[in-house]
Design goal:
alpha+beta, seven-stranded mixed beta sheet, FAD, Butyryl-CoA Dehydrogenase, subunit A, domain 2, Butyryl-Coa Dehydrogenase, subunit A, domain 1, two-stranded antiparallel sheet
Length: 371
């Protein structure tokens, strides 16, 4: 499998990096994360209109550009570099791909054009109180009364849910769950913003009390849809973690070139060199795993579950290691609120846990490989 990007994909990376340096600076991130919904509406619309990011991997018939997983991977890596405070993962990485995986043309026609132009922000609600992505643990009840589908129960740790105006909710039979669309202003729906480690990415708890919902896809057919969405989500998170690790490495190398101690730049000390070298090895190992997963998802879909789990495990370890080293090697200033290191550390720690930490990904790999 080729791990080489095309000229168009590299141009996408360059344009997005330039965009992030202008509109997604640490100052912008801190301002957005202080808001309850974690959303800069003007920025969100600019990402959709000027760069067309929201519709990159959406078919043209729904207003998208018709590209694929590789282009989306490039976007997530660059957004990770900027530790961007946007609902891109929840709305584009998860919800849009869940809609596409469902094959429900009616639901796709109703929601995807809005997701592409930025007017619809969707969040995927699967996890419950244990925080695990386990479709077999679904406890939300789905009843049909006079032809109206009503949901009762709750979902927890819904990613980017504070900014969402639509939710895609797994509900019904735990052995064969169904997927439903619920408007954020639907009667019987209550939303609670959670206190989380990563302040740049809001998570919410949803409580449903006979809340009206629209079915997506066939009844009881959400299992394969959620499995496919999980695999894509793992790759996107891994790409974001790769971007975080790379940014931490660059930040720390630059600091080591500038900071002096005992009359020498600290980067000249062998102990510091060793740590920086270890960070580089971690970053490059993650890069190979992430790019392999993106290539597998595009060229060999049957290999995606294994490649996605491997990428998530390796990238999680790389990002948590590099963000920790960034704080350590910056010395006292690295521990302060004013420095940006904690933004990367918090995002890395949070995303390393999301959809399963490295140990859980290793267990998933063992199951998939039957070892």
């Amino acid at each position: 499998m080729s791990l080489v990007f095309t000229a168009e994909q590299e141009q996408l990376r360059e344009n997005l990096r330039r965009f992030c340096s202008k509109y997604l600076t640490p100052v912008d991130v801190r301002r957005t994360m202080s808001q309850t919904d974690g959303l800069d509406s003007a920025l969100w619309q600019r990402m959709a209109a000027e760069l067309g990011l929201h519709g990159l991997a959406v078919p043209e018939e729904y207003g998208g550009a018709g590209f694929g997983l590789i282009e989306l991977l490039v976007v997530f890596e660059e957004l990770g570099r900027a530790v961007a405070a946007t609902p891109f993962l929840g709305s584009i990485g998860l919800s849009a791909n869940a809609l596409l995986a469902s094959g429900d043309s009616t639901a796709m026609a109703a929601l995807l054009p809005g997701i592409v132009d930025g007017s619809v922000i969707a969040a995927l609600a699967v996890t419950e109180d244990d925080g695990a992505w386990d479709r077999r643990a679904c406890t939300v009840r789905a009843d049909s009364v006079d032809g109206v589908h009503l949901l009762t129960g709750h979902k927890n740790y819904v990613l980017d849910g504070a900014a969402a105006n639509h939710f895609l909710v797994s509900a019904g039979n735990a052995a064969a769950p169904s997927l439903y669309a619920v408007r954020a202003d639907a009667p019987g729906l209550r939303l609670h913003v959670l206190d989380t480690l990563d302040l740049t990415r809001k998570q919410v708890r949803l409580e449903f009390s006979a809340t009206p919902a629209r079915p997506i896809g066939d009844a009881g057919a959400a299992g394969p849809v959620l499995d496919r969405t999980l695999d894509i989500g793992l790759v996107m998170i891994a790409a974001e973690l790769l971007g975080i690790a790379q940014s931490c490495l660059e930040m720390t190398v630059e600091y080591a070139k500038q900071r002096s101690q005992f009359g020498r730049r600290i980067g000249s000390f062998q102990a510091v060199k060793h740590r920086l070298a270890d960070m580089l090895v971690a970053v490059e190992s993650a890069r190979v795993a992430v790019y392999h997963a993106g290539s597998a998802g595009t060229n060999s879909p049957d290999e995606l579950p294994v490649a996605a789990a491997m990428a998530k495990a390796v990238a999680s370890q790389a990002a948590t290691f590099c963000s920790t080293q960034t704080i350590q090697l910056h010395g006292g200033i690295g521990f302060t609120w004013e420095h940006d290191a904690h933004l990367y550390y918090r995002r890395a720690q949070s995303m390393a846990l999301f959809f399963g930490n490295p140990a859980q990904q290793h267990c998933r790999l063992a199951d998939l490989l039957k070892v």
